[in-house]
Amino acid sequence: MKTKTLYIKDIKPGEKVSELFLVTEKNMAFSQKGAPYLNLRLKDRTGEVDGKIWENAVEWDKVFKKGDVIQTQGGAVSFKNSVQLSISSVRKVDDVDIDLSQYLPVAKENIDVMFSDLMAFVEQISSPYLKTLLYAFFHDEEIASLFKKAPAAKGFHHVYIGGLLEHTLSVIRLLDKIIQHYKGIDRDLLITGGILHDIGKIYEYSYDSIFDYSDQGRLVGHIVIGIEMLDAKIAVIEEFPKQLAMELRHLILSHHGTYEFGSPKRPKTLEALIVHHVDDLDAKINAFQEYIEGASDDDSNWTPFHKLFERFIYKG
Amino acid sequence: MKTKTLYIKDIKPGEKVSELFLVTEKNMAFSQKGAPYLNLRLKDRTGEVDGKIWENAVEWDKVFKKGDVIQTQGGAVSFKNSVQLSISSVRKVDDVDIDLSQYLPVAKENIDVMFSDLMAFVEQISSPYLKTLLYAFFHDEEIASLFKKAPAAKGFHHVYIGGLLEHTLSVIRLLDKIIQHYKGIDRDLLITGGILHDIGKIYEYSYDSIFDYSDQGRLVGHIVIGIEMLDAKIAVIEEFPKQLAMELRHLILSHHGTYEFGSPKRPKTLEALIVHHVDDLDAKINAFQEYIEGASDDDSNWTPFHKLFERFIYKG
Amino acid sequence: MKTKTLYIKDIKPGEKVSELFLVTEKNMAFSQKGAPYLNLRLKDRTGEVDGKIWENAVEWDKVFKKGDVIQTQGGAVSFKNSVQLSISSVRKVDDVDIDLSQYLPVAKENIDVMFSDLMAFVEQISSPYLKTLLYAFFHDEEIASLFKKAPAAKGFHHVYIGGLLEHTLSVIRLLDKIIQHYKGIDRDLLITGGILHDIGKIYEYSYDSIFDYSDQGRLVGHIVIGIEMLDAKIAVIEEFPKQLAMELRHLILSHHGTYEFGSPKRPKTLEALIVHHVDDLDAKINAFQEYIEGASDDDSNWTPFHKLFERFIYKG
Amino acid sequence: MKTKTLYIKDIKPGEKVSELFLVTEKNMAFSQKGAPYLNLRLKDRTGEVDGKIWENAVEWDKVFKKGDVIQTQGGAVSFKNSVQLSISSVRKVDDVDIDLSQYLPVAKENIDVMFSDLMAFVEQISSPYLKTLLYAFFHDEEIASLFKKAPAAKGFHHVYIGGLLEHTLSVIRLLDKIIQHYKGIDRDLLITGGILHDIGKIYEYSYDSIFDYSDQGRLVGHIVIGIEMLDAKIAVIEEFPKQLAMELRHLILSHHGTYEFGSPKRPKTLEALIVHHVDDLDAKINAFQEYIEGASDDDSNWTPFHKLFERFIYKG
Amino acid sequence: MKTKTLYIKDIKPGEKVSELFLVTEKNMAFSQKGAPYLNLRLKDRTGEVDGKIWENAVEWDKVFKKGDVIQTQGGAVSFKNSVQLSISSVRKVDDVDIDLSQYLPVAKENIDVMFSDLMAFVEQISSPYLKTLLYAFFHDEEIASLFKKAPAAKGFHHVYIGGLLEHTLSVIRLLDKIIQHYKGIDRDLLITGGILHDIGKIYEYSYDSIFDYSDQGRLVGHIVIGIEMLDAKIAVIEEFPKQLAMELRHLILSHHGTYEFGSPKRPKTLEALIVHHVDDLDAKINAFQEYIEGASDDDSNWTPFHKLFERFIYKG
Amino acid sequence: MKTKTLYIKDIKPGEKVSELFLVTEKNMAFSQKGAPYLNLRLKDRTGEVDGKIWENAVEWDKVFKKGDVIQTQGGAVSFKNSVQLSISSVRKVDDVDIDLSQYLPVAKENIDVMFSDLMAFVEQISSPYLKTLLYAFFHDEEIASLFKKAPAAKGFHHVYIGGLLEHTLSVIRLLDKIIQHYKGIDRDLLITGGILHDIGKIYEYSYDSIFDYSDQGRLVGHIVIGIEMLDAKIAVIEEFPKQLAMELRHLILSHHGTYEFGSPKRPKTLEALIVHHVDDLDAKINAFQEYIEGASDDDSNWTPFHKLFERFIYKG
């Protein structure tokens, strides 16, 4: 296992940089004299940096591709107030030598702690059917392992290893507070729905190197994948109540709230309504906070324009 | 089994009418002197007619409810250029004595003929996996029986017993023509997709008496019910190819074409694109034709305003 | 002060009813013989009931108008499974004799308790400017008195005396939970924003008898009325920080979240984002619960169609 | 020619009414005893009134139909604060005896004066091609005659005989003012466009008795009918400049401003932009004023809800 | 007539290239030392390629312009996995020497065969009026000649010489199948409508060199141009039935289906409904297939993002 | 005060240019050899020009920033048919030496003349309350001074010093014509509303150097800022009529016409309706004219694509 010693956020202009990076973009460009050079975008868990290979670009181009981890030789320079790497040689790193958590952003909270906090919520479920169902999910090693790793989105909120878990835990903690606040809410259904609402995301994305959609992510999507996973687990629980199954399905199906956001049904139960709103709130707060944090070193009162929110955000 | 002898479309003002009807609406009204009377909407497979019970309305009200089949005594009168029944007595008919096909509209084509036409398409499927899948659906007695009976919608198109089968058969016949017309279409996938695109509707509606949505129809909907049925059938077919399953799922999921119409994914394969368009075309042609036919005795060039199409339709 | 002894929810068919009601609708109708009669809609805090005046309708029509409280003589009958009043004589009640809380629905929780709970939140504000501001609002007798009385809406959620206070308190209790959950939120701004977000509603509605919009409610609306009230209070606080005032204005302006719902600005700060979502959630939960409760005696699994939500709601 | 002596706005309850009316609605209704009666809606240029035929309704029903002018015998009564006619006998009036201007609302300004004001604008056109074109339209007797008569809409604005002329004249007067205000506007094109923008409406509606759409109004619409009329006239003018024709077509095609309102092209020239806006403004001002005037005897500050504007309008 | 010998798809890096190309883009750029060079986009019927003129760019710039066909001297190099031309000298080719079919993409099927297939459909029309009408169109040499050449769109579907003809033929072949499938369709009207639905496109685009909109294409658009052409042809056919003309107009006007897509009327007849749907289906299938084909050498399962469809398309 | 002698529109390639410019963009770029250079966008009131600093870019970069006025040394060259400056040295100019009217575009009409024309309208107001109100605005030196300077928008229409005043004056001149045209309009309210409708824009933008939004522009917006300014002025006028204040508020609030464009209320009075339409018309005419003028030296019949109008505009 290769280990990084210098992370992107710590690179200073003028330093020699002999380090490991994940390649997220690679394009050939050329000068007006026809001299080709390579434009790279390099990433580790602390950020991204541009890299240039000025010499022998055509040869180096064949050595590695987008999505690879590479070992580079070269130095850091400064342009446009940013650090940039000028790279003289490259070597592709074998997959077996890669510790992805060094290259991809990871949740700030400890993943195992978050997972056991989640399991504590599972323990509080009263309904034996729902508790059995949740065990069936999280005692399934593949599911548990992917659930600890998946991001919650490709580019909007919680875009990091452990992001899905962090988002899910945040949602159910909020749901838990809301249950105490209103009367007449079915706690078991609400918490179970909160835990499972995004479960299909573990198969919607690929996150072994660069985050992207999987084929089934684009063709089926996490909402329906989640229903299929749910059905498969329910099928092996004896006498799982039909109405309970139906309400749980409805909650997952409708958690995007409106047709426009890909829910084939809109919330028609109190619990589905609440999960939709809390999911939306948690995603947007995280998106605001990450975007403001990412724009913290600019001296403007405003972030750059946020395309999904279609607005500038006030940093205050 | 009770048998109707006089159908609504044949009732003439002035006749005595001692006949069987399905009650689709029942409301108490009253005159300005406080005299109660019952307003009924009565139905058989040839149409609907208003009925009034002027005497002893409160007592008769207790004898039957909306959704029942009743035996009435009374006579036909004419108001507003329409026939209306003035009813003197009523008796509720036992469920065992009811032949629903006398009370609900039925497809014009013979249902068994249509079903065997559909099965002929199944026979033409080359892929053993898809053929096995379709057998699994239509050799399932519950599914086959419901599929022969379900309407294709509650109030837009093919709203009659056998309507789903008629619509499905019409769609695959059109698909069959389209395959001959374009290159590069996967026939097996397209025809199988056409056959199964609306399969979830057998559980979306209740159609034992008045057509309505089932609970799972409203909470889950036929698109996702269809996916669940598909998954259940695929699960017991050995080595069903994963990509084929995924493309079939996508085709069902996306057959409403846009998010606004409840598809959680929009068509991203050629076959999904085609099924969506042909489904839409067949539904709308049927809706136009039925609406024009239903307005045929009015002497205007135009139908009444159609709420879903948001327009008057020209009868020509 | 006249006191009701029999409330609408307790009236039984067959009883004599000599009682006080608020008139919410009054229309003249007539029989086919030209005999006029009056259709009334009568209300008290427990519900609404239809009333008919069959005799001397033209004369009785002149005695009272919509919005009056009347003393009726007559009896209760039953039609369409509902109670209806057949009224023989009417007397208008003088305004001074009316205790409105008998005629309009009121919050279930005690209003003074809720108000003092709200004031406890005010006490927890750290910023002297914001605390002074909130004192300026709630030590203003007119504001405090109206704030205890106003409904939160005319017909969607919290439509009862004390509804605005109940909704506001519910919102800030949720905000208080959310503050504990996320980092980096300005508690003082969030709670103050939560308290004041709907303050303009005290002048948006009229609620002295039937709930309706005021002229300025329709022409200006509670969002901008709220800003004007805020500006008036800030103007007399020395050295109130300009940026704080601006952020508070933004929070109130943007609390409907989108242009379509009447916010001239969409949330651009974290606190504005949160208040918008929590306000929306609390309103919708209340609307769901009230609608389900109002449909509780129907034996369907579903409420009637809800026009604003554009759906049937599942009662479970 | 039959002449009315008593107009609807002057009928008082208690009077005998032997008078001429246009029938705009006719429906059979019936009492709870099965006694049929006729509900009529009667119209003359001053307003509308309900009428009832209580006796021998079935026979009277055969004597006339919707759209006819009838001579009635009977008396006026008062219900719901409105006058209503109780009719004992009816006679259909022959078409040749009808002066439609007594039955349909007419523009307040004199139609011939307005038409000659319009022609004065035609005289001011400098371009010989455009002047010839406008002569071709208005020296065409059919067009001139229909143009003096047509309403500008079926139910939104200028809904009266002469309404199209009044609206057109108002639009070009405003355009004339705007030309003086801005530089670089092609006066001839703008005024000609203003005159012709709605010319297709003379064939979009039927207005010989009740205002309605014609078949081509619904199938083709006034925008394209206008283009066809324009092309027919241009075809017989020698050497009409092609670009001028194209810009005039564009102006007519785009005068509804957006696709949503039925324009197949949006304004792309300055003149088209201006005609669209002035047309829209004049239509809406007329609609506001007519609606406020129609609601003038209600004592509310507000009109009833206006469906097209989706709002209540403040009368002030 | 100059003839190409080497087509773009066959150019290999390293070859000398002395060849003819259509210039679709030309922009001056410059190095950081102020040295200007020309960026070209060059096209022939097999594809497009970038070209660079490094030396004497300012002088060469004056020799030709966008839309010209040029004779170049130079060589092919490889960058970014693409071929690029490095050009040393250029000569503009005279229009008379240009065979456009070498530079613009052309339909795969033979244009004359397609045209005679279309004429065979014309022969099958029973109505003498409609047959005369279609003769009037296609025996008009200008129309026939342009109809064989025009693309069906500028950038969405059938974007090649003969594309309009190919699309039209495909649409009527599908319509022909649909007629056999449903009852009650007017075959003559449907086929004639199918043939003429896009006829206005022959004047909507310019396609003598680079495909673009004509002025009347942008100001009037093919829908209304089509109506004008139709009217001109009908005007010289004696006793052409008015209703038939109106239904044909409606069919052309409404063939985009909704206002949003530029139809001033939505389909209100069965035939108009069908033509709209079949037109839409054929356009989208072609667009999908062309886009998938254009992305065939990429090894992803997905095409690049398609802007009009707003999605990635699955290549399978 | 430094004075420009050479304006951008007059610079010729080949000239030496030692001149003053406003810097609107500044970015570091670099050659393929790693040599940094500065890309500048320079502005004066006659237009904009690109500038390059090829030598010592890193040092020059520290000398000035975006928004500064600089004194440059260098020469003009020609690329892409445009003039470009090659700059050898730069000096930042002190704020006190800057006459902004040399760097920012200014209204074509004289600002003081326009302002006194506006004041003449104020003098014509009959209502003493409204006249006092308008005095309160325009005798306020800060307001008057900013009102003479502010642009009417950041990038759509009247984007120049004095633009707000020019737009406002144009609107009220049109309103004045409209008053003469229709009956029943409250002249005082309409003209006052026209004068004040955009008054909040003086604080919505910053326009001391580059035009941009202020913080309160983004967080509060000119509509609500305008209301706050209005309230502050009304508060010190004795006995200002409440209803008049409310109608004026409504007029300002609703002048964008729809929710989508940021009005929290839509026009519900005749005067509000008219101001909205006239404001919209004047803004769009100016936007069309400025855009056509800006594209006048291109030889196409069409402007480039206009993003806000989403169309090409025909220059004719």
* Structure class of chain A: alpha+beta
Summarize the biggest pleated sheet of chain A: 5 strands, mixed, barrel
By DSSP (H or I, 4+ residues per run), the number of helices of chain A equals 11
The biggest chain-chain interface is: A-C, 31 and 31 residues
Strand content of chain A: 15-25%
Helix content of chain A: 25-40%
- Mean pLDDT across all amino acids of chain A: 93
Give the CA-based shape of chain A.
Answer: elongated
Strand element count of chain A: 7
* Element-level helix/strand string of chain A: EEEHEEHHHHHHEEHHHH
Q: Poorly predicted ranges of chain A (pLDDT <50, ≥5 residues)?
A: none
Computed Rg of chain A: 23 Å
Sequence of strands across the biggest β-sheet of chain A? 1-2-3-5-4
| First and last CA, distance of chain A | 43 Å
Assembly type:
homohexamer
Features:
316 residues; two-stranded antiparallel ribbon; homohexamer; five-stranded mixed beta barrel; 7 strands; alpha+beta
Describe this structure in words.
The structure is a homohexamer of 316-residue chains. With 316 residues, chain A is of the alpha+beta class. The first copy, chain A, is 40% helix and 17% strand. Chain A contains eleven helices and seven strands. Chain A has helices at residues 57-61, 111-123, 128-138, 141-147, 163-181, 187-196, 201-204, 215-219, 222-235, 242-253, 270-294; strands at 19-30, 36-44, 47-53, 69-79, 82-92, 205-206, 212-213. In chain A, the strands form two sheets. In chain A, strands 1-2-3-5-4 form a five-stranded mixed β-barrel. A two-stranded antiparallel ribbon of chain A has the order 6-7. In chain A, a hairpin with a 2-residue loop joins strand 4 (69-79) and strand 5 (82-92). In chain A, helix 6 packs across helix 10 (242-253). The radius of gyration of chain A is 23 Å and the shape is elongated. The model of chain A has no long low-confidence stretch (mean pLDDT 93). Chains in contact: A-B, A-C, A-E, A-F, B-C, B-D, B-E, C-D, C-F, D-E, D-F, E-F. At the A-C interface, helix 5, helix 10 and helix 11 of A face helix 5, helix 10 and helix 11 of C.
